[in-house]
Specification:
The complex is a heterotrimer of chains A (about 280), B (about 300) and C (about 425). Chain A has about 280 residues and is an all-alpha fold. Chain A is built from 14 helices and no strands. Chain A has 2 domains: about 5-60, no CATH class; about 60-275, MetI-like fold (Orthogonal Bundle), CATH 1.10.3720.10. Chain A is globular and about 70 Å long. Chain B is built from 12 helices and 2 strands, in the order ββαααααααααααα. Chain B folds into 2 domains: about 5-50, no CATH class; about 80-310, Orthogonal Bundle (MetI-like fold), CATH 1.10.3720. Chain C has about 425 residues and is an alpha/beta fold. Chain C contains 18 helices and 13 strands. Classes of the chains: A mainly alpha (about 280), B mainly alpha (about 300), C alpha/beta (about 425). At the A-B interface, helix 1, helix 4, helix 5, helix 6 and helix 8 of A face strand 2, helix 1, helix 3, helix 4 and helix 5 of B.
């Protein structure tokens, strides 16, 4: 185990696990509740004192999902939107991050701050002009309309820049001296060394686009263009919430995001080994 | 700047200030399209909104009058706006330190090759990927009054007095900030973990060989090298706390909460004025303030961290 | 590595090129889109649309659901751009500004005649604009009445339902229960003290303003003014403050609304007919009844706000849209809507006797609309009405938290005065204030 001196004291290790375990339990506790609630009958959900486990386990909340709304279609739509968006931002952020980190040209810092400044403004504030633009392009109620504001990610560029700044210049220069084109440098040096932050922003973007509500709401005019998050609306009755239904839909919504996370996790966590840098 | 001539092409060595043809090609093919998209999708709509803040544009009234300063003057006399401003500030002051410190702490612990590391990471990240709507519903139930809410139920069981989570303004704002932190923490743990993983083990090894203890290694090797990533974390945490919306919005609906107006924040204000009352000009003025303050906060943070670009 | 990237890029491009093809929606001969704001109504509209399409196969009706707040946002952006659906279901108060801005199609003569024939006069009046045009169907009526727990009443020895608001407070005090620690275990009268927005002011208006005779807005010529900065308005607020802090029949830290009533922890509360459906599904064992809002020294009545159905000017098939709307509101469909969704149709003259057999409580709601002397109020047709009520609700909710307002007429007077000033300012902003 390279990196840290081994902790000899057993209590330190136990203490560590206790701390991590307790805090992760707190993080997860609400989610446990979502899980169990999704299997409860509606009359069991609002009770005088909190009951964790269902007295009667039922699948009715899950089974009613396709009957309430075309959730399969919603699911596919979400996959398309999040998938295309994530692919675009991954590539775009890496390229721009590289340029902002390693190139020097006039106006570079200005452009970078232009990009950063757009992080500061939440979508709600400029959504009306954006909608009008989408309308003029004829992209209302289409995949193009759903996706196009999501193919750039300023925080992604920011994060990649910060990380690529840490890539030693010598590596890049060595390749250039060998006659590599910028494309070759980007594809064989920068990208492989940035897989970890790319994976990180991919997860973040996937989660963001997957649970984005306000944009699909405004752009989608008919049910077949809804995403999963819009589908959750079907359970919010005006006066009483269909808790069971929402929790079941939530579980279904979570699964792809969880899968994507687990798939990318090893990439993120394993990180990058800086071999070949020993002088 | 060092320029060498290799195989007949000029090559910038040592990353000088002039770009090669290949670099320029890369710039134009990969980066410029993104910049153009930024301008179309973000910059122009934002400029439109900022311009609107100087008008009395109302979605129901086609005629628009130019108001050079009235909207902004009204902001200062508007108790709702002042409350929102104060609340958003509190949001930042509480959420950012907690998220950064806890995020760093967890990342550092996890980085020590703990057994079950992957399990812990997944668990920490779970709140981040749970959709906000069911999460907020669960939290509303946790904070519900009487014994119906898990929090008060547990307090009761322990013999402690109940807390009016959703009926006392100061507490309910902290409760909402708690939801925000709970949801965002996983992001920071991952971000700092990535940063830590990217620190070459060789640096740490060298310090250990030099006789440093665990904490000295962390303080003198990891943290300084993590500065760029920490800056990123602080900036993002600040922006998200300053423009928090969904959790406040969802919590203030429904009949279990009696602190509606007291916990409002900047973006809920923009939403109310713009989409409920259709005062787009006034809402844009609030957006203007939101934007300017964000800009200032970020500029200050960049200065504080004094990160030099490569 | 590079191959993977190129492969993925090709895949994305392929998807991108295919998408336009996937997205094309085939045009039906006549297509009508309906946007609903509530899941129950959406289900209802879908079912009714099915029946209609059986009768008229050349017409295709698509129903889409957006939750209420979301639908209002969507309409705000889409309607002015001419991109909205053909039939929009929203509260009349939300629809009026669009009519005022010229985006809604007023009902044509034949439809107006049909509405006048089939709807009570005050329903028609509530959807008629100053210009004499009807801008929406007065489709459903959210009439408020009081629900009460019969077992609680029997246990406390109360033999009848209250006829005045003072009687109601007396009974509430007898019904309220606490535990040894002093925590409230049963609220005698569950008031809407919490929850966002104009719902709070709506319940407050019904609960205390109408009985004391305080008006939200009073008309002066063609303009308006706040009508509650007076003794009646102050008494109204005092009722709530006394309920929470003097007689302690309700508390801010107590569960509220249909959920609480279904759990059997509140004895009386104010709501609409949909609760009947909720109780049947979630709390079938509660023995409850409904009584009409009690009288007060200044008046007797309730609020029955109208859920409207409008056709935008941009609709391509106006005649078909109006025809379908009238079909949705015929006798059979009204019965189905009332029974299944719990929403109360505003229609008059529909025979619900079959329904009363299984849901007897619904009868009180229908009778309330026709009781002599019991006035059914609705929102005024002016553009800022929603803002006025929402802001009033914010201030009221802040006032409900102030225990210092008990036996403090000066304090209450100031709250009322400040709230009324804000109402007047909003009217002024829209050029509607009577000086």
């Amino acid at each position: 185990m390279i990196g840290y001196p081994s902790a000899k004291r057993i209590w330190a290790r136990v203490g560590l696990h206790l701390f991590l375990g307790l805090s992760s339990f707190l993080m997860v506790a609400p989610f446990i509740w979502v899980f169990f609630t999704s299997f409860k009958r509606s009359n069991e959900i609002v009770t005088e004192t909190p009951q964790l486990l269902p007295a009667v386990w039922t699948l009715e909340n899950y089974l009613k999902l396709p009957k309430v709304a075309p959730f399969v279609r919603f699911f596919l739509n979400s996959i398309v939107v999040s998938g295309v968006s994530t692919f675009c931002i991954a590539l775009g952020s890496a390229a721009c991050g590289y340029v902002f980190a390693k190139y020097r040209f006039r106006g570079r810092d200005f452009l970078f701050f232009l990009v950063i400044s757009t992080i500061l403004i939440p979508l709600q504030t400029y959504i009306v002009p954006l909608y009008l633009l989408t309308w003029k392009l004829g992209w209302i109620n289409s995949y193009q309309g759903l996706i196009f504001p999501l193919i750039i990610m300023s925080s992604g560029i920011f994060f990649l820049r910060q990380n690529i700044m840490g890539i030693p210049d010598e590596l890049i220069d060595a390749a250039r001296v060998d006659g590599a084109s910028e494309w070759r440098v980007f594809l064989s040096i920068i990208l492989p060394l940035s897989l970890s932050p790319i994976a990180a922003i991919s997860i973040v973007n996937w989660v963001y686009t997957w649970s984005l509500f306000i944009w699909p709401l405004i752009v989608a005019n008919s049910t077949e263009m809804f995403t999963m998050e819009l589908g959750l609306m079907y359970f919010q009755r005006e006066y009483a919430v269909d808790y069971g239904g929402i929790m079941a839909a939530c579980m279904i919504t979570l699964l792809p995001v969880l899968v994507v996370f687990l798939a990318f996790r090893t990439r993120i966590i394993e990180g990058v080994a800086f071999t070949g840098m020993k002088h | 700047m060092n320029v060498a001539v290799v195989k007949g092409k000029r090559v910038a060595v040592g990353v000088g200030s002039r770009l090669t043809r290949s670099q320029i090609a890369f710039l134009w093919s990969m980066v410029m399209p993104v910049i153009v998209l930024f301008i179309i999708i973000r910059v122009i709509p934002v400029l439109v909104v900022l311009l609107m803040s100087f008008t009395n544009y109302n979605m129901n009234r086609p005629l628009v009058r130019f108001l050079p300063y009235q909207n902004f003057l009204r902001l200062f006399g508007d108790p709702n706006f002042m409350t929102a401003f104060v609340n958003s500030t509190e949001f930042v002051l509480v959420a950012v330190p907690v998220e950064i410190l806890l995020g760093l702490a967890f990342a550092i612990y996890l980085h020590r090759k703990v057994r079950f590391e992957s399990v812990y990471e997944t668990l920490y990240f779970l709140p981040y990927i749970v959709p906000m709507v069911p999460a907020a519903i669960i939290w509303k139930w946790i904070y519900a009054p009487g014994t119906y809410g898990l929090a008060n139920y547990l307090l009761d069981q322990m013999g402690l007095p109940r807390v009016g989570w959703m009926s006392t303004p100061q507490i309910s704002l902290l409760a909402v900030i708690g939801i925000h932190v709970w949801k965002q923490l996983g992001f920071f743990v991952i971000v700092f973990l990535v940063g830590l993983k990217n620190i070459p083990a060789s640096f740490r090894e060298a310090a250990v060989v030099d006789g440093a203890t665990l904490w000295q290694v962390t303080r003198n090797v990891d943290l300084p090298l993590l500065k760029p990533v920490i800056l990123f974390g602080v900036v993002m945490a600040t922006i998200w706390a300053w423009s928090a919306f969904t959790e406040v919005y969802i919590i203030s609906q429904g009949t279990d909460i009696s602190t509606g107006a007291e916990i409002q924040v900047m973006v809920t204000r923009i939403y109310a004025e713009g989409f409920l009352y259709f005062n787009m000009g006034y809402a844009s003025a609030i957006s203007f303030v939101l934007f300017i303050v964000s800009l200032m906060l970020v500029a200050v943070q960049f200065r504080l961290f004094r990160v030099e670009s490569a | 590595m590079r191959r993977t990237i190129i492969g993925v890029a090709v895949l994305v491009l392929a998807i991108g090129l295919l998408l336009p093809a996937v997205n094309r929606v085939d045009a039906a001969p006549v297509e009508i889109n309906i946007w609903s704001a509530f899941p129950e109504l959406h289900e209802q509209a879908t079912w009714i649309a099915g029946k209609y399409m059986e009768k008229y196969p050349n017409i295709k009706i698509k129903t889409t659901l957006f939750p209420q707040r979301a639908l209002e946002e969507k309409v705000a952006v889409a309607l002015p751009a001419g991109q909205a659906a053909d039939l929009i279901e929203l509260d009349k108060m939300a629809l009026y500004p669009y009519y005022a801005a010229g985006h809604l199609q007023p009902l044509p003569k034949n439809v107006v005649d049909w509405v006048k024939k089939n709807y009570p006069d005050y329903a028609v009046a509530s959807v008629t604009s100053e210009k004499g045009e009807i801008f929406t169907f007065p489709w459903l009526d959210s009439l408020k009445a009081m629900f009460y727990n019969k077992d609680h009443f029997k246990e406390a020895g109360i033999a009848k339902t209250p006829e005045t608001i003072d009687e109601m407070m007396e009974m509430a005090r007898k019904l309220t229960k606490r535990d040894e620690k002093g925590n409230l275990t049963r609220a005698g009268l569950d008031l809407r003290l919490s929850g966002g927005g104009f719902g709070t002011s709506q319940k407050y208006w019904t609960q205390v303003m109408i009985p004391y005779g305080a008006k939200v807005l009073e008309k002066v010529g063609t303009k308006w003014r706040a009508g509650y900065d007076n003794e009646a308005g102050r008494k109204a607020l005092q009722y709530y403050i006394d309920a929470v802090y003097k007689y302690k029949v309700d508390s801010l830290d107590f569960k509220s609304d249909a959920e609480a009533f279904g759990l059997g922890i509140t004895s009386m509360f104010q709501r609409e007919a949909w609760v009947v459906g909720y109780m049947a599904k979630n709390a079938p064992n509660i023995n409850y009844g409904v009584f009409v809002m009690p009288k007060g020294p200044g008046g007797w009545g309730t609020v029955g706000n109208t859920m409207g159905l409008s056709v935008p000017k941009s609709c391509k098939y106006k005649k078909e849209a109006f025809d379908f709307a009238m079909f949705m509101m015929n006798d059979d469909m009204s019965r189905a809507t009332f029974g299944d969704s719990g929403w109360q149709p505003f229609r008059k003259g529909v025979d619900y006797s079959q329904l009363y057999k299984t849901r007897p409580q619904l009868k009180t709601f229908i009778d309330a609309a026709q009781t002599k002397g019991h006035v059914v109020y609705d929102y005024e047709n002016i553009t800022p009405i929603f803002e006025i009520h929402s802001r009033m609700a914010d201030r009221l909710m802040a006032a409900f938290k102030r225990a210092d307002l008990v036996d403090n007429p000066a304090g209450i007077a100031k709250v009322i005065k400040d709230t009324a000033e804000e109402t007047n300012r909003i009217l002024e902003d829209h050029g509607l204030f009577a000086k």
